[in-house]
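W.,

You were right to be curious about this one. When I first looked at the sequence I had no strong expectations either way, so I just let the prediction run and decided to look at it fresh. Below is the sequence, 453 residues in total, followed by the output.
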Amino acid sequence: MITHEYDVVVVGAGTAGCYAAASLAQDGLDVVVVERKDEAEAGHIACGDALKGADAFPDAIPKSRIEASFTNTGVDHGRFEIPDHDTVLDIPVPGELAVIDRHEFGRRIIDGAESAGAEFHYDTVVQDVRQAGDRVIGVRGIRKGDPVTYAADVTVDAAGALSILQDKADLGGTTFDTNVSYSQFCSAYREIVEVPEPVEWDDALVFKPTQRAAGYLWYFPRTSTTINAGLGFQMTEEPMKLVRDLRADLEARPEFAGAEVRDKLGAALPTRRPYDSAVAPGFVAVGDAAGHVNPTTGGGIAGAAYAGTYAAEAIVGARDDPTEAALWEYNERVMDHFGGRYAGLDVYNVLSTAVDVDDLMGLLASLPGEKLAEALYSGSTSMGLALKLKSAIRSFGYWGTILDFYRTKQLAEELIDRYDAYPSGPEGLSAWQADRDAVMDRVYETTGAEPKY
């Protein structure tokens, strides 16, 4: 068996893995990225292709390197279709927005990490984790058909949702979050579709609910004639026939008459709060592998880029002895930047499992688009008296649902406050979790939803 020795081994060449590798290499560490796909397919990942926050990416891979993958920078709002109520909501999206060619983006971030000094090993399937006591010391796998071992001071799990590394590693004696189940994830499928004529909504991200609250269709225009069309649903639901249901909706839309499918791909992604702790001795999880995704929209590219960068900076600071305590700064930075906000947003996901889909769609159809945008992206929103009165009149018949939303909103804001008090070290995690979980118990009591965690 061949053994390679590195300071850090990164498993997965997605956004989080590439940004981690680039940052580590720039700081002088010897880093390898192991990727199961071959070199031509690396970076080809199932994704909605929508990129929010493109104006504020980490510098580990300069924005100038990835801008050529931005195929549509003219999108500036969401378009929420609610057919049962004959309503289309235009929802403004804060911050810079773009639709990208995800495969091209993937190639460019790989190039960026390589230029920074990271090494890439393709055709490498990781099968096991190497440990000495509770400390992770590398991984084992198969590279181009031959057994291979990677010995490293730190292993970065960037292997995506439901990562095998977390199944193989013994993390029971650490703070690493093991409260993870399939019910906290979404299954998604997307096609890249060429339409014969430009669509009228090439400046919008189009969303459409499925017949169940825990799923939605999307149509994101890479260009006016190249559309990323997809469908996702929560794994708590009865399985949907993703390809069939997407095909039925495409065939019902006149703008897709005569369209040709160019690419098909499916994936799982987290629709849950970020991991309470994503570190263990010698081990750090980033991106989808740590729940770093906006649970209401599924957006995760920018969060993954920052998570990878924060992880790298913590690893550099802990390189002499990468204990949980030494790596803890990574957890703090994630929670401070987006983790608390995502946890607050997850409360609305919990509510959606207990609300009748017709009531939910009726309520959304009656609310102002700008306030929905605040709720989708910040986890909190507020209204003046005049707007409250106007919304109350429009939403007559859904006041019971509104009361549920109001109570849930208050709890979401209270939860975000708890994340502002995230502990400064692993010794404070248990007490913090108990305080946070007391708020979540009230969320379940208020919404009537089954516990998610």
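Here's what jumped out at me. The longest helix spans residues 324-352. And, maybe more interesting for your project: The chain is about 35% helix and 25% strand.

Coffee later to discuss?

I.
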